[in-house]
Design brief:
This protein has 167 residues and is α+β, with helices and mostly antiparallel strands. The chain has one domain (2-164): Nuclear Transport Factor 2, Chain: A, CATH 3.10.450.50. The chain has 3 helices and 7 strands, in the order H-H-E-E-H-E-E-E-E-E.
Length: 167
C-alpha cells in the first residue's frame, strides 16, 4: 500500500511538471507569435513609408521574396527599390493583413494569411488581395523575416470592388 501511495504521488508530480512545461511552451509560443505579428506590421509600414532603415533591420541578409509571377527579390533589391525616388505615376501603397494564422516552431514562426494592397487608380481606391506565407527566424536574440511567398488570391465580388476617394 505504501508503494502504491508513493507511486501515485510520483505520478501526480510528474503529470504536474508536464503540464507546467506545456504551459511554458505555450506562453513562449504566444510571446513569439505576438512579437512576430508586431514585426509583420512594422515591415508593412516600412514598405508604405519607404523606410530603408527599418527594412534593413526587419529583413534578414539572406531574405528572398517570391512573387506570384515567379520573380524573386533579395533583401538588397527590396531595399534599393524603396530607396529609389518614387515615380509620380506610381501609386502610394497601403497594406493590411487578414485571416492570419501563426505556426510557432521554437525559433521559427510562419505566418500564413491574406494581404490586401490598396492604391489609387483614376481617383478611385483599388484593393487587391494576395495570399502569403512569411517565415521569421529568431537569430542572436531578434526576429527577422527570412522568406516570403506571395500568390494570387481569387478576387471575390465584394473584395474587388472599387471605392471612390470620397467614400
Amino acid at each position: 500500500m505504501r508503494y502504491l501511495s508513493v507511486f501515485m504521488l510520483a505520478t501526480v508530480a510528474l503529470l504536474f511538471s508536464f503540464l507546467q512545461a506545456g504551459d511554458a511552451q505555450a506562453l513562449q509560443g504566444s510571446k513569439a507569435e505576438q512579437a512576430v505579428r508586431k514585426l509583420e506590421r512594422a515591415w508593412l509600414d516600412a514598405y508604405e513609408q519607404r523606410d530603408a532603415k527599418a527594412m534593413n533591420a526587419i529583413v534578414a541578409d539572406d531574405f528572398v521574396i517570391t512573387f506570384p509571377d515567379g520573380s524573386r527579390q533579395t533583401k538588397q533589391q527590396v531595399v534599393d527599390s524603396i530607396k529609389a525616388p518614387r515615380n509620380p505615376a506610381s501609386p502610394s501603397l497601403k497594406f493590411h493583413t487578414e485571416d492570419v494564422q501563426a505556426r510557432v516552431y521554437g525559433n521559427t514562426v510562419i505566418l500564413i494569411g491574406r494581404v490586401v494592397t490598396e492604391y489609387l487608380r483614376d481617383g478611385k481606391t483599388v484593393k487587391e488581395q494576395s495570399r502569403y506565407t512569411d517565415t521569421y527566424i529568431k537569430r542572436q536574440g531578434r526576429w527577422q523575416v527570412v522568406a516570403s511567398h506571395l500568390s494570387n488570391a481569387p478576387q471575390t465580388e465584394k473584395q474587388s470592388t472599387t471605392v471612390s476617394k470620397d467614400g
